[in-house]
Amino acid sequence: MFLNPRQTLSTCKNSDCEDCPVKKELNCHFNLKQLVRFITIVMPAAIVGGYGIVIYNPLYIIIWILMFIIYFGFVEIRVMCSHCPHYAEPNMKSLKCWANYGSPKLWKYRPGPMSMTEKIIFKAGAIIIFAYPIPFLILKLELLSYILLGIYGVLISTAFFLLKKYYCSYCINFACPLNNVDNKIREKFFSKNQVVKDAWRQ
What we know:
By secondary structure, the protein is mainly α. It has helices at residues 32-56, 59-79, 116-131, 133-139, 143-166, 183-192, 194-201. The protein is 55% helix and 0% strand.
């Protein structure tokens, strides 16, 4: 279901993960607990936003679902996930991480930072998707929709804060614009992952 926690990443020069200081500071491996916690963080906002769309017009929820599938299942994988060392694992046909679990690996591994174009696509896509329910909540012109709008805003803000604190601070995909791993910790990772280091030093 997930990469063996005792098995090093394919980019890592270590023979095993025992006594590795990096594993205490970064999530080189993923597990079911992380996946469940991620879903718990993001689902409330998705449910409230989806409900707001449905009470306006149920047909529009289909568009939102398609946007989710296309963006998170294909577009984000290309522009952001393909830069992640986890993506380099040769025996995995799909991603086994907390954010995009099950998404197919259609693109080749591309170590190093994202290009400016990729960053724009990544940010624009995320903004469009998470802002999509807002017009429907406003246009409904009902007290309930305005209450849902406030709740949606709080849930989105809370999810963003929790992800930055508990996930983005430990993520090995340094290319992601949301990644905020300390530079000293990044250097520790680079020292054990030469391919990744070389790509970031070009």
